[in-house]
Write a structure and sequence with these properties.
554 residues, three-stranded antiparallel beta sheet, single chain, 2 domains, binds protoporphyrin IX containing FE, alpha+beta, five-stranded mixed beta sheet, 20 helices, globular, Cytochrome p450
């Protein structure tokens, strides 16, 4: 395949000129560098029509795929599409044309170029859920200011202090798991992790004790877990089919009758906002304004209190609510997902589980972990990285260029992208790229021990390879892997909670693996079922037989 447009394309027919003129008047292209609006997204629909009516293919030279990649054999289908078309392919996303990429060099360009891309359709459909700052970045100035306040709050001193909170949440959750073990019940570990992650975010981010882990770790989940999941699902519905937005403005009574989904969404939003409002009131009551430097010297406290106290970056109550709702959703689903799939893979791979247990036993010797221990638990952190490689959360990132631009691969071949066109960065496909990863479908944490620079199959021009010498924090970042692993994204919109998440997952898994052995009821992904949303869920829960292990004494 090649990116080069064929020479000597036929001249545009006059009907086409008329058609283009009509569109330019009715749905004008937004100004360069301004945020992507509904008009720009509508123009993506025009590109679909252009192709149908005038056989005008916008991304000439890029293969077109008609496969729909969803369902339980998602990973196999993605691999088929890759092998058939290469790492750049045009496909349909509802009625819109999308360019999907899994080439690390193109991804590096798309994520790493500051100010060139917005979140496009995602921002439009999710603004009422997340607001205009974090995640959607639909008001770039506001995003910059909220990003600065939030990322300042995730400073290393605070992160260290969280270890004890994660330990306490896990101890609490294990009490219930112990009962299930004694009754020899089958446990849905996905529900267990959703509850546990919610307790952890409540405690550390805004100081609310949800006590979700006090619920039996089998479905139905706690109402607040369901509410968070409901909001996330809503973004998926709307992205998959923007017509799902149509009834969003309907009066409550009409929504109850004609659109139960919308009514349920509103109830979920209200439920979450009530909890957050109370936490914000409390933080405002205890407000003690200080500079960032002084705040960094305080130990403990919540992220919310840090942000409320940050003298130079004050925000309205409504803005704080958006910030907190976003962080709540961003932490909860993703961390629960990585814990779920790590448990699945460890249960499937007893050799690896045994190796983790040995490491945990050597480092912890039966006690709870400290921050220093988390640094020592290197193999367990590779297990978590390997899980995120195989089951990234989210499985793709959405972007739209803010002006017409060329997206180059490592050989300087380019795809021309128009302002507002849809770009999908396919993390799940990149992370199983057979030119980058040896045995890409195998769960093999040891791969992160040594440098690698390509398998020779499906060459990746321009890619520098992975070098463990470039790893600085708790996992191999996009810098260490030259954008072959972007589980936490990269560039300006990169996850603010990456080290928080790695710390949380390492603490929780180390404690659970010390105390229990896990055995799956179903091992086959087709039987478990994949539910592809903003993260990868199971369809029927992760049904697990849990038994007592021998190492935990505390
Ligand atoms: C395993 C766990 C996690 C994974 C895999 C993950 C992944 C990601 C990714 C890929 C992005 C980038 C989205 C994009 O580029 O469009 C992101 C953004 C974000 N994440 Fe995470 N995340 C995790 C945990 C967390 C946690 C624990 C928090 C907070 C406590 C958090 C807060 C955020 C926020 C606020 C953003 C938006 C940043 C912005 O818009 O500037 N995430 N996350």
């Amino acid at each position: 395949w090649s990116f080069t447009a064929p020479k000597g394309a036929p001249p545009a027919p006059s009907l086409k000129t008329l058609w283009d003129g009509l569109w330019d008047r009715a749905v004008p292209v937004g100004e360069d560098d301004s945020n992507i609006g509904a008009n720009d997204v509508l123009r993506s629909f025009k590109r679909t029509l252009d192709e149908d009516l005038f056989q005008e293919v916008e991304m000439d030279g890029v293969p077109v795929s008609s496969s729909t990649v969803t369902g339980s054999n998602f990973f196999e289908k993605q691999m088929e599409v890759f092998k058939e078309n290469g790492p750049a392919v045009v496909s349909n996303f509802g009625p819109l044309k999308t360019l999907s990429i899994s080439d690390p060099m193109m991804i590096k360009h798309a994520l790493g170029q500051r100010g060139s891309f917005g979140k496009g359709l995602l921002a439009l459909v999710a603004e009422d859920i997340f607001g205009k700052a974090l995640i959607t970045a639909s008001d770039p100035e506001l995003w910059q200011s909220r990003r600065a306040a939030t990322s300042a709050g995730f400073h290393s001193q605070w992160l260290r202090s969280l270890t004890a909170d994660f330990v306490n949440c896990t101890v609490q959750a294990m009490k219930l798991l112990d009962e299930r073990v004694n009754y020899k019940e089958v446990v849905d570990m996905e529900s267990f992790y959703l509850n546990l992650a919610l307790d952890a975010v409540g405690l550390t981010i805004f100081g609310v004790e949800f006590e979700a882990s006090d619920q039996p770790p089998n479905r139905p989940q706690s109402p607040i877990v369901q509410a968070v999941y409901r909001l996330l699902k809503e973004t998926d519905y709307r992205q998959a089919d923007p017509s799902n937005l149509l009834l969003m403005g309907a009066p409550d009574l009409l929504a109850e009758v004609a659109a139960p989904r919308v009514a349920e969404y509103r109830r979920s939003m209200k439920q979450i906002n009530e909890v957050l409002n109370e936490a914000i009131s409390q933080a405002l009551e205890q407000q003690q304004l200080a500079t960032e430097q002084d705040l960094r010297r305080r130990s403990g406290g919540t992220l919310l209190q840090f942000i409320v106290d940050l003298r130079d970056n004050q925000a309205s109550r409504a803005q704080l609510q958006d910030d907190m709702r976003t962080v709540l959703i961003a932490e909860h689903e993703t961390v629960a997902s990585v814990l779920t799939w790590a448990t699945y893979e460890l249960a499937k791979n007893p050799r690896i589980a045994q190796k983790v247990k040995e490491e945990v036993q050597n480092v912890l010797g039966g006690r709870s972990p400290t921050y220093q221990d988390v640094k020592e638990l290197k193999y367990l952190r590779w297990v978590i990285t390997e899980t995120l490689r195989m089951y990234p959360a989210p499985p793709f990132l959405a972007r739209s260029p803010l002006k017409d631009l060329d997206l180059p691969n490592g050989e300087n071949q380019t795809v021309r992208l128009s302002r507002g066109s849809l770009l999908m960065i396919q993390l799940a496909q990149l992370h199983r790229h057979p030119g980058i990863y040896e045995r890409p479908n195998e769960f093999w944490p040891e791969r992160w021990q040594k440098a690698f620079n390509g398998t020779g199959e499906y060459p990746v021009p321009g890619w520098r390879g992975y070098d463990p010498q470039r790893v600085t924090g708790l996992y191999p970042t996009e810098v260490a892997t030259d954008y072959a692993f972007v589980g936490f994204g990269g560039g300006e919109f990169k996850c603010v909670g990456d080290q928080f998440a790695m710390l949380e997952a390492t603490v929780m898994l180390s404690m659970l693996l010390q105390r229990y052995d896990f055995q799956m009821v179903y091992e086959d992904l087709n039987t478990i079922g994949l539910d592809l949303a903003a993260t990868i869920h199971t369809k029927r829960g992760l049904l697990t037989r849990v038994s007592q292990s021998n190492c935990y004494t505390e």
